[in-house]
Every structure is written in structure tokens, then in C-alpha cells.
């Protein structure tokens, strides 16, 4: 028997009216379900009633709007992860202290020169570590970033590793002057950044898709790893449960954290990735996780957003096109296809901020033609 769609309510039509504005800002929203996570703050600011799912246990945002999500049935309780190489299920006890607003969270990511083939005992070659210290009350209060000398690359795998690097973060395997410290030194510096509180190490979070790689690298870099790694999706679920007494779906939480709107925001990527206009940056991935949580949960917890919560100077709520907001393809790879277009419009170089200059050129042409 096919699923029956629920009745469309006021929030559905509010989101539908916001859809063209979000699309003009370059956000990847094609349908109402895509825009759900991006409209809750505007809905709260408008003075309307809470969103339909807020305060109603077990109600999913998409299904509350009469939208079929296609998700399968799942067991009750917190989001569980059963796939190989995924983080373990959330423990029965809470990782949150009673004063949730002041809780300190550390978001961590470790990039590598690709995953080594199965004949090699070593699975990854760590090359970049990013970490941020965050709370709902104060936003990002400190950040940590280091490049790591990967050491000796297994014979026969150098070309494989460099090809994987070129496809994403583009960090060279050898001869990279910024990666002048080996993993033991970098790990000690990371431990100094994530300091124990009253003798206990605070929990560290990363996205579930990155958990296996990050956890493997932590164990490989230390004889006895001190950091306990958890999935940030479980954290978001628990933050919602603590305030609204309801559990959002795993699909909705994953989509919430998988956005591109801050890819080109200032002070997000490390200096090297910023100067070379490369999106894949370990520090940026941690900061964007913090931005997503701030953008969605600040209104829920009654927190006023600051520049420590979001890059507000880049958050343009008008109808103007922001050339820094660029929607990438589904594979999240930069496809350098616009050299011909730039040459067609009289540009002579594609180095630097090629995408930004392309959009600025198109916007200028649009304005001149309208005049």
C-alpha cells in the first residue's frame, strides 16, 4: 500500500515561498524538503508558530509537511550505525552536561593521501588535521590546524596516493614545505589543544562518513590513543532531544550537515587552501560542521548568532547573487570546465578564484544588458 501524504500546513507554504529566494542565493534546493533545514530560523524570526515538528516526539520534519522521504523503518532510540567501518551506536548515557549551552565540543577531521589498496597493511597516510573548539553559547572559540609529513610512502603506491590527493585536497606527497612535522609531533600538539577536563578527555566528534578514516589515523599515530571519537550526527540528535523531546531522522540530520553554502566563506579554510582556491580542507570541514549546528539549533536554544557562530558577513539574505556561494556537483569535485567560458568573455587566465570571477562576469553582463 503506498504511503499517504499528510496535509500541507502553514509551514509548508512558508518554505515553498522561500524556495525561489534560496535558489537565487545559490543554495542546492530544488524541492521543499531540501529547504526545510534552511528555513527554521526565518520562520522563528517571522514570529509565526514553531515549525510543525518542533516539540512533537518522533515527528520527522519532512513527513510533517506531507513529503515522502523514502526512508526505511528503523529501530527506536538514537541513530544507530551498523555499516562496516562506521562509528558504534551512541551509548546509553548522555555525553551532554546539564548546562548544554556551555558544553564544549571538539570537531575533528584528518585528511589522508587517499586510502591505500588492500595489499598494504597501512590503510591511510595522514597529511592534514583540523579541529575546532565549539559551544552553542560562544560558537567557535579556538581552532587547530596542522599539515603532517606522511613519511615514507609504500613502494608502488606513490602514483596512486598522489592521484587521490590531486582529486581532492591537492596536498603534495613530498616536497611540501608546510608539512615539516611528523605525526608524533602533530598528535602531541593536538592533545595540547584538546586538553582533559578534571582528568577526563572531552569527547571528539566527526561526521559518520569520516569516522573510520579519522579513528584509524588516531590509533595509528599513537601507541595509546587518548581521544574518544563519536559521530556528530548522534550529537545533533541528542541536542534536539534534549530541547524538543523529539528525535529527527538520521537522513534529515545527515542532509543538515552536508551543505555547500559556506564553501567560499571567509576565514573558513586554512590559509594554504584559501590562497590556492581549493575547497577540500580539514579545518574547513570542522568549521562548517559548527556553522550547520549554529544555523539550525541557535533559534531552538535561544542563542543570538555572532561571527563566532556563523560567517555572518557572507550570509546574504537579500535577493542579490553572492558570487562566493557556488553549488558543486553531486560528487563534490571541482570540474574545471569554465576556461572556455572565461576566454569567451575576454578573460585571459583561470588561476585563482576562477569560479568567483566567472559569476562576477556573468552578473556584470546581466546588469549591462538590462540597462
UniProtKB/TrEMBL annotation:
Keywords linked to the UniProt accession: Cytoplasm, Developmental protein, Differentiation, DNA-binding, Meiosis, Nucleus, RNA-mediated gene silencing
GO MF, any single term: sequence-specific DNA binding
GO cellular component, as recorded: nucleus; P granule
Cross-referenced InterPro entries: HMG_box_dom, HMG_box_dom_sf, Maelstrom, Protein_maelstrom
Gene name for this UniProt entry: MAEL
Similarity field: Belongs to the maelstrom family.
Residues of the HMG box domain: 2-44
Protein name per UniProt: Protein maelstrom homolog
Native species: Chelonoidis abingdonii (Abingdon island giant tortoise)
A Pfam cross-reference name: HMG_box_2
Function description: Plays a central role during spermatogenesis by repressing transposable elements and preventing their mobilization, which is essential for the germline integrity. Acts via the piRNA metabolic process, which mediates the repression of transposable elements during meiosis by forming complexes composed of piRNAs and Piwi proteins and governs the methylation and subsequent repression of transposons. Its association with piP-bodies suggests a participation in the secondary piRNAs metabolic process. Required for the localization of germ-cell factors to the meiotic nuage.
Gene Ontology biological-process annotations: cell differentiation; male meiotic nuclear division; negative regulation of DNA-templated transcription; piRNA processing; regulation of miRNA-mediated gene silencing; spermatogenesis
Residue intervals of the Maelstrom domain: 119-313
Alphabetical list of PANTHER family matching this protein: PROTEIN MAELSTROM HOMOLOG
Subcellular location: Cytoplasm; Nucleus
Amino acid at each position: 500500500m503506498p504511503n499517504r501524504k499528510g496535509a500541507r500546513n502553514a509551514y509548508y507554504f512558508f518554505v515553498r515561498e522561500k524556495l525561489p529566494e534560496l535558489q537565487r542565493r545559490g543554495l542546492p534546493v530544488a524541492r521543499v524538503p531540501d529547504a526545510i533545514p534552511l528555513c527554521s530560523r526565518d520562520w522563528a524570526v517571522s514570529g509565526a508558530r514553531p515549525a510543525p515538528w518542533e516539540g512533537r516526539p518522533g515527528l520527522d520534519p519532512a513527513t510533517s509537511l506531507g513529503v515522502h522521504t523514502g526512508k526505511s523503518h528503523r529501530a527506536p532510540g538514537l541513530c544507530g550505525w551498523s555499516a562496516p567501518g562506521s562509528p558504534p551506536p551512541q551509548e546509553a548515557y548522555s555525553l551532554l552536561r546539564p548546562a548544554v549551552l556551555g558544553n564544549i565540543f571538539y570537531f575533528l577531521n584528518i585528511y589522508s593521501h587517499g586510502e591505500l589498496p588492500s595489499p598494504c597493511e597501512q590503510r591511510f597516510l595522514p597529511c592534514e588535521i583540523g579541529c575546532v573548539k565549539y559551544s552553542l553559547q560562544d560558537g567557535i572559540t579556538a581552532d587547530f590546524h596542522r599539515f603532517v609529513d606522511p613519511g615514507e610512502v609504500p613502494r608502488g603506491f606513490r602514483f596512486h596516493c598522489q592521484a587521490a590527493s590531486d582529486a581532492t585536497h591537492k596536498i603534495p606527497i613530498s616536497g611540501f614545505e608546510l608539512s615539516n612535522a611528523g605525526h608524533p609531533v602533530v598528535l602531541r600538539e593536538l592533545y595540547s589543544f584538546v586538553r582533559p577536563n578534571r582528568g577526563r578527555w572531552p569527547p571528539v566528534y566527526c561526521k559518520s562518513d569520516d569516522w573510520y578514516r579519522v579513528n584509524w589515523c588516531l590509533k595509528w599515530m599513537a601507541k595509546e590513543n587518548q581521544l574518544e571519537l563519536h559521530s556528530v550526527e548522534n550529537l545533533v540528535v541528542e541536542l534536539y532531544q534534549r530541547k524538543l523531546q523529539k528525535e529527527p531522522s538520521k537522513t534529515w540530520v545527515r542532509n543538515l550537515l552536508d551543505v555547500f553554502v559556506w564553501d567560499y566563506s571567509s576565514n573558513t579554510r586554512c590559509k594554504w587552501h584559501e590562497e590556492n582556491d581549493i575547497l577540500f580542507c580539514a579545518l574547513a570541514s570542522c568549521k562548517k560542521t559548527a556553522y550547520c549546528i549554529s544555523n539550525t539549533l541557535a533559534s531552538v536554544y535561544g542563542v543570538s548568532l555572532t561571527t563566532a557562530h556563523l560567517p555572518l558577513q557572507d550570509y546574504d539574505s537579500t535577493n542579490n547573487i553572492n558570487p562566493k556561494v557556488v553549488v558543486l556537483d553531486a560528487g563534490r569535485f571541482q570540474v574545471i570546465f569554465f576556461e572556455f567560458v572565461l576566454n569567451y568573455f575576454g578573460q585571459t587566465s583561470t588561476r585563482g578564484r576562477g569560479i568567483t570571477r566567472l559569476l562576477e562576469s556573468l552578473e556584470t553582463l546581466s546588469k549591462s544588458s538590462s540597462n
